Amino acid sequence: MNMTEHLTELRNRIIWTAVIFIAFFIIGFVFVKDIYSFFVKDLEFSLHVISPGEIIWIYFTMASVVAIIGTIPFFCLQAWLFVRPGLTPKERKVSLSYIPATFLLFIGGMAFGYYVFVDLILPFLLSLNDGMFNQIFTVDKYFRFLLRITLPFAILFEIPIITMFLTSLGILTPSFMRKTRKYAYLILVIIGTMISPPDFVLQIVVAVPLILLYEISIFLSSFTYRRKQKKHEDFMNNNE
């Protein structure tokens, strides 16, 4: 393909992704009440709205989250189809397996963040009240706080896949990840501190899974790097 044909194909991929996003957005918008009921069914307090804008905000927020989650595998598939002509048959097979892994890790990150929020962070914050204040929780503030916790986890859980991808491109190496391990730990601890309350135990609970993810990423990077090196050696031996 020439440059114009590449741009045309890219445009078509983006358009199809946008169509799928809109479709999932509509589905989410239709089922907002069911989704909302799922998230508030176990709350020990009621949520309130203090302005009409909060009602439409919750509709658009819930629908957007559904659209993002539903569009991720399709977006990854469209990206794979766009780069597929430049890949070998083996590379196509390996890279295609990244798509379900990306989706599952994103869902896993959101689920973990939701568990941390509901079972650890929220009870801790409520315990600080100890009868001092009258608690009034608004829909806007509650769900903004919830998304502030869950979305970073969903993104950070993609680290292993991103690591494998960058290693396969030759941008990242396992030795570099090992050398920068202490700096990565510091960054992950800072992130854990930012998305968790000022309680040492909770910050450890949040930071430890992120550090484990980094160690898993090093292992996967090493695995990908060894396969890449072996492929290069086989290629060189066959051309001697």
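The above is record 1. Record 2 follows with the same two-line structure.
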Amino acid sequence: MYNLLSSNKRKEKVSTQPQSVAPEHAHPCRHIAIIMDGNGRWATQRHLPRLAGHKAGVSALRRVLACAADLNVEMLSVYAFSTENWERPRAEVDGLMRLLWETIRSDVEKLHREGVRLRHLGRLYDLSPELQKAVRDSEELTKDNTRICLNVCFNYGGRAELVDAVRQIIAKGYQPDAITEELIASHLYTSNLPDPDLLIRTAGEMRVSNFLLWQCAYSEYYSTPTLWPDFSEEDLRKAIESYYQRKRKFGRVPSASQ
């Protein structure tokens, strides 16, 4: 069984490496978002069913979450299932639903013991009642944990999120002049969460695919050809090191001291 964030082997490995790759005075990389792409291609290359790739992707998430916690990353948001993924073959969709259920059942207690807070981002009401309850129960169990927060974006779409936010705002009777960026942000699934500092996409693709469209307006982008099931701790470190080589200006002209 996996011990998700600590093991004797992991402790030995981490003890010889720095806990943070952040240079002095850099804007910290607190929140990382990941588009976990390439599971299907990974399976096809090995003449395996696509679901085998998704299962390997869960294993990759386990090790990346562990490494992120070791590096003092405070939040990880992962794109697990999009609102468009319902259009995939029925067998694959059903398999992904079973995989979510099985992963919650097998991992949530260990995650809780290791201080991980779980949050679901997306349209929960489209999932089965059993899955909805399992997700809510995992959120309730881990709500006070502080080591790292894992946001699982399942049945998530950036445009759907904006539609849901607008519907809430209209339902509350806000007038047009009252609409601000702050008001919209407060009605997103990510209300009260920090925007991602770094957005990672695997499998060499160069698009955001409807993921955290509002929140990633000024996130630093990193693409790697590595397929998600092969994404390693070293790959994560390379992405973070790339982030610390950037100058974050947020649309402003940097001062002479920056």
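The first helix runs from residue 8 to 15.
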